[in-house]
Structure formats: structure tokens, C-alpha cells
């Protein structure tokens, strides 16, 4: 067990960045398309469902005791089946998630700031930054998140506050006009964001006080829900449903339209800097998780031995999409409809087996 462990404050910051860091730039569009003005209902319903999921994750984490997640899967399912399960259902999704987090970050940077710069070059530079951060261990990622969160918070509050000046209640009303299927679709999409809290299982052995995991997860989901609600209402209040549905990235468009004292404009560069800090933290954490999954699957003692190979694999996966803007929208759509089932399925399946075997005295 590491001598320097992750505090719950650091864990909460990382999880907020994981849950909120990427999805929020497209979230108002996705909710308005599926649920019209009722998108906020999807956020609220997803919050309550995800609090149940937090309990499931914390319960499974308590069953693990001092064993890492991959080893515990092997104990529950046997060495061969457990390893196959870890590779197919844990490692492959983690690698895809890591790769697309970096690609989305770089794509937005190229689109807004450096349109002529080769994607591959910026991806390599971004991976080097993540590699340097992850090489210091999870605690280094946690300290980085703790360092940037005050600035991120102040700038986001400032930008959202300026954007709120342009809100109109006529664009927000009526508060509910979506269909039940549409609201359910919005709920599943938001659940897919909140259930990313399952990543805590991979780093459970590196958390300072594991008895507080459930409380930290529930606080994280609640705070993320508040952020999502604020983002949704401010965006809809600026553009209305019809315009929000037409924008690929409505939050970025909203920031572009901010005018302060009629001469300070184009604040999207400041917003992009905040977004980079959030997603660098998120990407570093996902790279660390992918590396320790490979390490534990291979039975190695140190994740640093596989860090560079994982970076190389991540790099080539991230280069695969040609039309990244369309890929981002499709990725969020697929993830929004499927990830919640994947998360509940994996955690629920392992929790069921763990509970049964514990009652039978076989673990």
C-alpha cells in the first residue's frame, strides 16, 4: 500500500473532473434534443439513481478490503475467467476512454486556437504531459487537481455569471414539455456521466480512509448535479431550445457570445484554458487507471513498467477517428445510452457474486 495516499478532498476533485470535465460542453444539446425543456428532470432523476449506484460501489469496495480490484475479480471468478473479464470489461473500455479524452481535448484546442497544427503532434505533446504527471503516482495527479481547482472554480463562476446576464425566462419556460421516453433518454445519458464514479474501485487501495468512500461519492454526484443544472439552465436561458439543438458545443458558443463592458470579448480562450486543466487531470487519471489495470493483469509490481506501452496504444487509438466533431457527438450518444447499463452491470454482477460467496464463507 502506498505510503502517501489520496485524500478524500483530492479524490472528490478528480471525480468531479471525470464526471463533469468533458460531457458538459455537449450536455445542453443532448438534453434539449431528447427532452426539450424537461432536460433538467433527467438530471434530477439521474442524481437519485446514481446515489444508489454510489452505495453499490462503496459496498463492493468494502468487500475488497485491502485487495486491488483486478485481484479481487480473480478471487471472485477464478484466475482465467477473472483475467478475461478484466481485459474485456475493464481494460478495453478504460483504454478507449483514455484515448478519446485526449483526442477530444486536442480537437477542441485545434478548432479554437491552432487550426493548422497537426493533430498527431499535439496528441504526442499532451500524452507527454500526462505521462510526466502520472509517473509521479496517483497522489501527484491528486495534488495537481487540488492546485488547479481554485482557479477553475473562480473562472467558471465568473464566466457563467457573465453568461447568466443574457438569460431570459421566456427561453427557459415551460419547465416541462418533454415526452416520457425523451425524459428517460435524458436520464440514462446523465446516469452514464454520474456512474463514472465506478473508477474509484481501481484506486481503492490508494485512498486514505476507505470508510468514507460512500460519503465522498454521494457528495461528488450531488455537486456534479448542481453544476449540470446550472450549465443546462444558463445555456437554455441564453439560446432557447431550438438554437441549443443546432449547436454542436452550445456551452462554447455561449462563452463566445459573452461581452464584458462592450469591449472585452472572445473569452473562449480563457474557457479553453480551464477546460484543458480539467481534462488534463481527467486524462492523467484515466491513463493511471489503464496502466494499473495492465500492471495488475500482468502480475507486475510497478505500473511504471507498462506506462509507456499504454501511452503508445492510447496514442494510436486516439488517431483513429477522422471526423472528430462527428465522432464526439456519436461517442457521447453511444456512451449516454450504453455506459449506465455497463456500469450497473459490472458493479452489480461483481457485488452479487461477492455477497453470495461471502455468505457461503468462500471468500
UniProtKB/TrEMBL annotation:
The keyword Protease does not apply. The keyword Transmembrane helix applies. It is a multi-pass membrane protein. GO terms for cellular component: membrane. It is found in: Membrane. The chain crosses the membrane at residues 12-28, 40-58, 84-106, 118-135, 147-168, 180-203, 223-241, 269-294, 306-325, 337-356. One of its GO terms (biological process) is spore germination. Belongs to the amino acid-polyamine-organocation (APC) superfamily. Spore germination protein (SGP) (TC 2.A.3.9) family. This is Uncharacterized protein. It comes from Paenibacillus contaminans. The lineage of its organism: Bacteria, Bacillati, Bacillota, Bacilli, Bacillales.
